[in-house]
Design brief:
The protein is 22% helix and 28% strand. The chain is α/β, with parallel strands linked by helices. Helix 11 links the parallel strand 28 and strand 29. It starts with 8 loop residues before the first helix and ends with a strand.
Length: 545
């Protein structure tokens, strides 16, 4: 006996809501009861790729077969919505995704989308997500009927959608909206976006990403033919706003005293950042990308009492910067220019990540015993001494016991044994990870000598990704340390003996399994099953003197 089918509808709907869209739709063929459950399900998620064979798109870009599939897609959505609407049932969520059907094909059928939004608005829609193919010459005008969607809590508009200036003449009843996201949409008037936001007094999450403004140069210009990024935005009185993501707008002012998370990507490379961070007393996460970060901005950080995460990516910084925060726990600096000295005063810092082509002096003050430091190093043929120099520039020295170094691009390293050969032990670090080495065996010894003359890692990991071709290098590395290939080192003929000849691989780890006293590493690697996810699998050697 099927005991599930006789459960109350709200329980069955909850079950459908936890299934992937395709699996949920398949339940409609199980029985008459499940079919009725499916057609009363208040969540409608329709994606064109589920109706169209993507392999046919290049062959029939605008052919009759594709138009037929489009009509099937439209009929499916219309039937589902009309049935809910006619029976007075709620539509909690409507999600439409037409990334594979161009707006040029859809334009003659835009009136169906208007009808869908009309029915959803009259049926108590709570979540509306429209993701249309981006096409500036064939845009979908969002219908005015959406202004009556009083129960809307989330509105997501992405792609070829236009907000007409006519919205300025209407009061939007978005009193329940908590999430508002505009991505790559077109504004008929620069005031429309602000108008939308001003009627969302309870909005908590706001994302404005690469929105465009239509500025016609002459009568008759197509709506998207004269589009440029929105240049400025000023928002006031958003008392409930907690999370903001802004990309592509140069001048931004946001009055939101309870803001907790702010992500800003400048409209142009290295634009100035003008927000007064000192006014965001509850800010916990700050992420800045492609911004010119000036001294005054960093001086505001101590005025943000609860700031825990600071991320600076591709920013233009001063040569010497000071970063401080009593509650700062996570710090990331990625490919920031001009840096020569970084002074960090964050006693509760747990993670510090650095990535770039420079080797600045990184100084820590009042460090936590739980601190982890990681560095992603980019190399070229002139960087023979750079790794060791970078490590030596980190102070105090006890930080090195928590340092993990990720080496990117080892191909340019050439034979440099004479430069780096020495008998003294280099700085000790926690971990090193390699992702790529030249597959030429003549490069194996120079690379190994360069690595171990630059630092002494407690553990060293090698990627198992097939394209990195590290297995042969792993075997060479292992056999050299275990003694079978030590005669190949230049120090045997030139002296003095390299310090690392005293190293041993005491254990090998793969997916938390530990191997000890491995006699034939090549055979062990060949016996390993092919990893399901190459990016996440590594072989790790634990080294000891």
């Amino acid at each position: 006996m099927d005991r599930i089918s006789v459960m109350p509808k709200f329980i069955l709907h909850d079950i459908l809501g936890r299934l992937p869209d395709k699996d949920a739709a398949r339940t409609s063929v199980l029985s008459k009861s499940w079919r009725e459950t499916w057609f009363s399900f208040p969540i409608l998620s329709a994606c064109d790729k589920n109706f169209i064979n993507l392999h046919e798109l290049p062959l029939y870009p605008e052919g009759a077969r594709l138009l037929s599939k489009l009509d099937t897609f439209i009929e499916y959505v219309s039937k589902r919505l009309r049935r809910l609407h006619n029976q007075g049932l709620a539509v909690k969520k409507l999600k439409l995704n037409t990334q594979y059907i161009s707006n040029k094909m859809l334009v003659s059928r835009f009136h169906h989308v208007d009808e869908w939004i009309q029915m959803a608005s009259e049926s108590g829609i709570e979540v509306l997500e429209l993701n249309l193919a981006l096409s500036l010459d064939k845009l979908y005008n969002l219908p005015l009927c959406l202004t009556e969607a009083k129960s809307l809590t989330k509105l997501v508009l992405t792609g070829g959608i236009r907000l007409d200036p006519a919205f300025l003449n209407h009061s939007l009843k978005f009193f329940s909206v908590r999430t508002l996201l505009f991505h790559s949409i077109l504004l008929g008037d620069e005031r429309v976006m602000k108008h939308f936001i001003s009627y969302c007094p309870l909005v908590e999450h706001l994302s404005l990403i690469h929105c465009l403004l239509y500025k016609p140069l002459s009568v008759g210009d197509p709506p998207g033919s004269r589009a440029n990024y929105v240049k400025s935005l000023s928002l006031h009185g958003l008392q409930k706003l907690k999370r903001v993501e802004v990309q592509g707008i140069e001048d931004v002012y946001i009055d939101a005293p309870n803001l907790e998370n702010l992500c800003y990507l400048a409209g142009i490379v290295h634009a100035s950042f003008k927000l007064n961070l000192g006014s965001y007393k509850n800010l916990r996460w700050l992420s800045l990308l492609c911004v010119r970060v000036e001294t005054w901005l960093l001086e505001q950080l101590p005025k943000i009492p609860f700031l825990e995460n600071l991320i600076l990516k591709h920013c233009s910084l001063c040569e010497r910067i000071n970063i401080s925060g009593s509650q700062l726990k996570f710090l990331e600096l990625t490919n920031c220019s001009n840096l020569k000295e970084i002074n960090i005063d964050a006693p509760n810092l747990l993670s510090c990540e650095y990535s770039g082509k420079d080797e600045p002096v990184i100084s820590f003050r009042g460090i936590s015993n739980q601190l982890d430091v990681s560095a992603h190093i980019h190399l070229n043929h002139q960087d023979v001494d750079r790794l060791r120099q970078f490590i030596q520039n980190i102070v105090p020295q006890e930080v090195l016991t928590s340092l993990s170094v990720f080496i990117i691009q080892l191909y340019p390293i050439i034979e440099s044994v004479d430069i780096l050969q020495g008998s003294s032990s280099p700085p000790s670090i926690k971990h090193m990870q390699l992702s790529a080495v030249s597959d030429r065996q003549t490069c194996y010894f120079p690379v190994m000598n360069w690595l171990l003359s630059s630092c002494f890692p407690e553990t060293i990991s090698f990627s198992l990704h097939y394209s990195f071709k590290l297995r042969e290098f792993m075997v060479y590395f292992y056999e050299m340390l275990m003694g079978s290939k030590k005669g190949e080192c230049y120090c045997y003929s030139r002296g003095p003996e390299c310090w690392w000849h005293g190293l041993k691989v005491v254990k090998i780890t793969h997916l938390e399994r530990i191997y000890e006293n491995v006699e034939d590493l090549k055979a062990m690697l060949n016996a390993l099953p092919l990893p399901r996810n190459y990016d996440e699998e590594f072989i790790t050697f634990t080294l000891e003197l």
